[in-house]
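Researcher: Sequence recovery benchmark, item below. Answer with residues only.
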């Protein structure tokens, strides 16, 4: 558990892919009003429907910001369909800890934002599993 906690702290203190993307294919802002976490996700989608670049801006707790850093690393090169099929189990496996019910919304904020951005990009309604994140 300490190893995973160290990785979360490292991603929080030195986030990957943090910043604005001016030429994004789609951007989406989401927040977690319960604790004040907020972020904007920027996706660049290539002609084959894969994520060629991803960035995020935002503020929040260590879990939400570390999760965004890890998630943005993870989705690079993935197809829109692969991202749309991701769920909480995938996120927990990626970050290496189960944040528990009190912090789950913090951890899933980036996943929800990235998934919703893919639906917006494709002009599709957001599916029920994504809405429940």
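Model:
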């Amino acid at each position: 558990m300490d190893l995973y906690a160290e990785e979360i702290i490292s991603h929080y203190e030195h986030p990957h892919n943090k910043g604005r993307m001016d030429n994004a294919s789609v951007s989406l802002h989401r927040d977690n009003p319960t604790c004040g976490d907020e972020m904007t996700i920027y996706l660049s989608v290539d002609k084959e429907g894969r994520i060629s670049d991803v960035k995020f801006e935002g503020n929040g707790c260590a879990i939400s910001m570390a999760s965004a850093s890890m998630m943005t690393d993870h989705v690079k090169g993935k197809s829109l369909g692969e991202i749309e099929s991701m769920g909480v189990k995938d996120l927990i496996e990626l970050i290496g800890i189960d944040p528990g019910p009190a912090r789950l919304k913090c951890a899933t904020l980036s996943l929800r934002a990235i998934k919703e951005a893919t639906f917006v990009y494709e002009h599709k309604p957001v599916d029920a599993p994504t809405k429940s994140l």
